[in-house]
Every structure is written in C-alpha cells, then in structure tokens.
Amino acid sequence: MVKLVFCVRRKPEMTLEEFQARWLDVHGPLVRSLREQIPSMAKYVQSHLVPGGATDAVRASRGTDEPFDGISEVWIDEAAVGGGSDAGERLLRDELEFIDMARSSVFYTVEHEIL
Questions:
Q1: How many angstroms separate the CA atoms of 18 and 16, rounded?
Q2: What's this model's pTM, rounded to 2 decimal places?
Q3: 22 by DSSP, 3-state: which?
Q4: Second CATH level (architecture) for the domain 2-109
Q5: What's the burial of 98, exposed, middle or buried (CB within 10 Å: 0-12/13-18/19+)?
Q6: Residues 51, 16: contact at Cβ < 8 Å?
Q7: Contact partners, residue 46, CB within 8 Å, separation at least 6
Q8: 40-74 burial, b if ≥16 CB within 10 A, otherwise e?
Q9: Which of 53, 60, 45 lies closest to 8, judged by CA?
Q10: Which residues pair with 7 in a beta bridge?
C-alpha cells in the first residue's frame, strides 16, 4: 500500500475558513460518493491547518516557511498507482475550483511506522 500525500494551499481569493469549509463540506462528500468507482482507494483523510500561536511557535522554532492550508492523504493499492479514471478526473476538476495547484505539492509515499 502506498499513500498519496497532497499538501494544499487555497486559491488566493479564498479565506482559510472558506477554503476549509469548501474542502470538507463539498469535496469530502464528493470523494465519498465516488468511493465505489475508485476501488483502489482504501482510505482518505483531510488534515486542516490550525492557525495561530501554536503553529507560529513551532514554525519559528524550526525556521520553516509558511504552512500549507492542509494535507490530504489517500491510501492506495500499490498496483493501481498511476492509473487514471473518470472519477479521478471528476475529483481533479473539483480541486481546481478551490486549490492553488501552483503553490501546492503532491507525491506518493511509503509509510514507516515508528510509534
């Protein structure tokens, strides 16, 4: 099993609150509705940025750049990596409505559980 990690930033015209609501309340249900059309997708999780003091402090302690607005993780059957589908195209069309693709990043990973 591999995991697709998508570090996302919102379109510039959206507030963080608008972005998170759109992602969770529109895109999330779309992913769920297409689940049977993407049988290789075992799990989908959204992690939304928690803005404010704690995030600012941990960033400052490490000298990192601005945070992403969130990440999504999709666990995928390894044999299906790279395969396209109509459902995948539908998800991409929706993502283009609220994600700033040029400022986001997507990649495949393999987990190594430590704890």
A1: 6
A2: 0.89
A3: helix
A4: 2-Layer Sandwich (3.30)
A5: buried
A6: yes
A7: 23, 24, 28, 70, 71, 72
A8: ebeebebebbeeeeeeeeeeeeeeeeebbbbbbeb
A9: 45
A10: 71, 105
Summarize pLDDT for 54-99 with one digit per residue, the tens.
Answer: 999 999 999 999 999 999 999 998 766 655 678 989 999 999 999 9
* Amino acid identity for residue 83 in this structure: G
Which pair of tokens denotes residue 25?
């309340």
Extents of the domains making up the chain: 2-109
Element (H or E) spanning 107, and its range? Answer: strand 105-109
For residues 4-31, give the mean pLDDT. 98
Backbone angles phi, psi at 108, to 5 degrees: -90, 145
Q: How far apart are the first and last CA of the chain?
A: 19
- Exposed, middle or buried, 7 (CB in 10 Å: 0-12/13-18/19+)? middle
